[in-house]
Write a structure and sequence with these properties.
By secondary structure, the protein is of the alpha+beta class. It is 52% helix and 16% strand. It has four helices and four strands; from the N terminus they run αββααββα. It has helices at 6-36, 63-89, 92-97, 122-134; strands at residues 45-50, 53-57, 101-106, 109-114. The strands form two sheets. It has a two-stranded antiparallel sheet with strand order 1-2. Strands 3-4 form a two-stranded antiparallel sheet. Strand 1 (45-50) and strand 2 (53-57) form a beta hairpin. Helix 2 crosses helix 4 (122-134). The protein is elongated, with a radius of gyration of 20 Å. It starts with 5 loop residues before the first helix and ends in a 14-residue tail after the last helix.
Length: 148
């Protein structure tokens, strides 16, 4: 039977810790994205490292929830696809001219708008898709938060 050296045990523990943290981060990101669409998966959790990778347990949900989630994901994917296509078609000199950012303060929040995005922003694409699908707009709070 092969026994790990001390250095191998330390390296293995570091890989497991990294995988566990990756799962925690993925759960946090998915929970936040679902909240933007007013969706909650109560059983969403980190299931610990599996084969050196983070593993997220999504849990079960009813058919109505699954259909709504599929609708939101499809809308976000369509929006991303549309944005990527638009980015490929834009000419570099036009993009440089259209990056003007306009913002206003409303109730302590800064609302920022651009004439044309500088790069694909998956959160913005998701929100555009959500708005197009549901007719409701969502607010994103991008202030840093603690992951622990």
């Amino acid at each position: 039977m092969y026994e790990f050296t001390y250095a191998e045990r330390i390296e293995y523990k570091q890989r497991q810790d990294s995988a566990y943290q990756a799962g925690v981060d993925a759960v946090t990101n998915l929970r936040a994205a679902l909240a933007l669409a007013d969706l909650t998966l109560p059983s969403l959790s980190n299931d610990g490292p599996v084969a050196g990778h983070g593993f997220v347990r999504l849990g079960g949900c009813n058919a109505a929830f699954a259909n709504r989630l599929a609708e939101v994901i499809a809308a976000g994917a369509d929006s991303l696809r549309y944005q990527r296509k638009a980015d490929r078609l834009e000419q570099p000199q036009v993009v440089a001219q259209q990056r003007a950012v306009h913002g206003v303060e409303v109730d302590g929040y800064r609302i920022v708008r651009t004439e044309a995005p500088a790069a694909v922003d998956p959160v913005a694409a998701f929100l555009r898709g959500l708005r197009g699908t549901t007719g409701l707009s969502a607010r994103v709070d991008r202030r840093p938060t603690s992951t622990h």
